[in-house]
Every structure is written in structure tokens, then in C-alpha cells.
Amino acid sequence: MTMMLHVREVKPGMVLQRDLVHDGKVLLKAESHLSEAMISVLNLRGITHVDIMNAAEQHAAPGADHYYKMAINASADQEYQRKKEVINKLFSSVEDDEQMHLLKYCMVRELEEEYSDKD
Length: 119
Known about the structure:
Elements: E1 2-6, E2 20-22, E3 25-28, H1 36-44, E4 49-53, H2 55-59, H3 66-91, H4 98-116
Antiparallel strand pairs: 1-4, 2-3
Helix pairs in contact: 3-4
């Protein structure tokens, strides 16, 4: 799962999820480990947000064991299913209410978007 973080929240050692492109130029390649100097350059260039790998993805960077990556994906799928079941249970008694149905739809959609980046 990608985490979009404001540069103020980025800490040295965090890893970029994808190439950082600014003004049509690749400033940093995906999977770059950010240093304090790199973070300072981001601020100087006016870059406000970057996509950062979550901790589990950092361990599954290139060269990581194929089965470890599969385990991470399986864990994410289980977490997604558990959260979706909670949403369904919360809204099970109000299915006839259009506003509640819309709210449930929005929550499920947000959940799907959150977990679609994990693939």
C-alpha cells in the first residue's frame, strides 16, 4: 500500500514507492532510501507530497523472497476482507435507508481504493 505523505512527515530512511518526477525530470528513482539531504532538496524544489512504501513493502523490495511477497499480499487481502465484513455488518440493519446505503457505498469504495494499490 502506498502512503502519500507530506514532505514534513517524511523521515530519513523511508523508501519511495515510485519515481519522483518534477518538471518532467526524474529526481529520484523508485525504491530510493530518502536521506535528510534528499528531503531538504524536496522542500527546496517545492515538492509537497511523495509516495512512500509502507514498512511491509520496504522489506519486500526487489530481491526479497517471492514467498514473502505472497505472504504480504495474503495478509493485505485478509485485512481487506475483515474490514469489508465490518462495514457490511455495521450497515446490515439499515439497507433500506438510501442515505445509509450511499454512505456504505462510499466507505466500501474508499476501502477498495486503499487496497487496490497493494497489488
